[in-house]
Design goal:
Elements lengths: L1 E5 L13 H11 L5 E5 L2 E3 L8 H4 L7 E4 L2 E4 L2 E3 L9 H18 L6 E5 L1 H15 L3 E5 L2 H4 L5 H13 L2 E4 L2 H9 L7 E3 L14 H8 L4 E6 L8 H7 L6 E6 L5 H10 L6 E5 L3 H10 L2 E4 L8 H8 L4 E3 L5 H4 L6 E3 L5 H13 L4 H8 L5 H24 L1
Parallel strand pairs: 1-2, 1-7, 2-5, 3-6, 7-8, 8-9, 9-10, 11-12, 11-14, 12-13, 14-15, 15-16
Antiparallel strand pairs: 4-5
Length: 397
């Protein structure tokens, strides 16, 4: 079975952690199975780079082709129109990618289906490609593409159009499936396949050794994610005055970095906040093992991988009670869900876990329920079902 993975959510040489969950799921899918894959992960192009942040401009340094984890990845360019680009984005993405897809097929990779990630604009563009190349389409809904973007009229209509043309739909949590059904998509067409966690990469290290190596001298909480508003790093910083003997490490980069540093200074907690910047998966495992609690204060999440990553390292979590998160934090040994998304609630939950932490072995054992094996089996079953009609037609001839 040859599959073409299509998504702008995929790591590259400039942003190696961007969409890492898509790459990880694919790596587990192709390992030891009969599936071969190629990836088309388009890169945005803006003519006037003064209109976009520096991190966006750096994407121009990504090569057209690279190999990641033994899988060939192609990065065609597509035009982005700042501030007004939301509605034309699917068409521009399709136009930017179609030649690369055609060349890939002509040069010896006759893909049997397109496996797209993120409904808008990626899924819509993938539906156009599937129609052009006459192959089935499977789309995975991942979070903001369903819990935010359908609030806009035209994107909502395009998402519905795309869902009607997809032969299979995956949601990474039950909450996203419910939202897809609310959009008018038949429940029977949607399969819930949650993300897993790499239990070999994320495993408990000696906590005291990890703390010493990272210079952790007191109780330390960790907040991981892109430095954007919905991740709620500011709420975690605002909780620190109520946690006087606790340090905070923030791992991630993004446009709000300077604002968060100013907030820490204003609150008088700068000496207790460390901004680690973008952190590799390997180094992130060290941070998880050294930290006492991971805090995820997001306003929206589909399936937050960082929660399981921390648990796999033996570290309990405090997380917002939103979307798929209650499906991840579903037992006392996993950690605590916030009563409300406020600094005060964060401080109470962190204090409670620090006072009575679950055993690290129990936290790790909970995470071990979430290997990638079940997801991989579900993907293969879904792809087989989607391709069965085409195979039967081919056999008839």
């Amino acid at each position: 079975m040859n599959i073409l993975v299509f998504s702008t959510l995929y790591p590259n040489s400039v942003r190696p952690s961007h969409g890492i969950f898509v790459e990880t799921r694919l790596a587990h899918l192709v390992a030891g199975s009969r599936i071969s894959a190629r990836v088309v992960a388009p890169i945005p192009f803006v003519a006037n780079t003064r209109l976009v942040p520096e991190e966006f401009r750096q994407l121009g340094n990504v090569g057209y082709r690279e190999e990641r984890r033994g899988i060939d990845v192609i990065h065609p360019r597509y035009v982005v129109i700042p501030k007004i680009g939301m509605v034309p984005a699917p068409l521009l993405l399709y136009l930017g990618a179609r030649r690369s897809v055609a060349v890939l097929r002509a040069k010896g990779f006759p893909f049997h289906l397109i496996d797209a990630h993120y409904f808008y604009p990626d899924g819509v563009a993938a539906a156009m490609l599937a129609c052009e190349f006459g192959v089935p389409l499977v789309i995975t809904a991942r979070g903001t593409d369903i819990n935010l973007i359908p609030q806009f009229r035209l994107p909502r209509a395009m998402i519905r159009w795309t869902a009607a043309r997809a032969q299979g739909i995956v949601a990474v949590c039950a909450a996203l499936k419910d939202e897809l059904v609310a959009l008018g998509i038949p429940a029977g067409k949607i399969r819930v396949l949650r993300n897993g966690v790499d239990l070999s990469l994320f495993s408990p290290l000696d906590k005291e050794a990890a703390r010493a190596a990272l210079g952790f001298g007191r109780s330390t909480i960790l907040s991981v994610g892109h430095l954007i508003e919905r991740k709620g790093h500011d709420l975690v910083i605002r909780a620190l005055p109520s946690l006087p003997n606790v340090n905070l490490v923030i791992a991630g980069d993004g446009p709000l970095g300077q604002d968060l540093k100013r907030l820490a200074a204003t609150l008088g907690v700068s000496d207790r906040v460390r901004f680690a910047g973008s952190v590799s998966q390997h180094d992130l495992a060290k941070l998880y093992s050294a930290a006492d609690v991971l805090v995820l204060a997001s306003s929206r999440e589909g399936w937050a991988n960082v929660l399981l990553e921390a648990m796999a390292c033996g570290t309990p979590v405090v997380a917002s009670n939103v979307w798929g998160t209650p499906e991840v934090v579903a037992a006392p040994e996993a950690g605590l869900l916030l009563e409300e998304r406020t600094p005060e609630a964060i401080a109470r939950a962190v204090a409670a876990l620090l006072a009575s932490p679950p055993p690290r072995a129990a936290v790790r054992a909970y995470a071990e329920r979430f290997s990638w094996d079940e997801t991989t089996r579900g993907q293969i079953e879904l792809f087989d079902e989607v391709l069965r009609p085409a195979r039967a037609e081919h056999a008839a001839f």
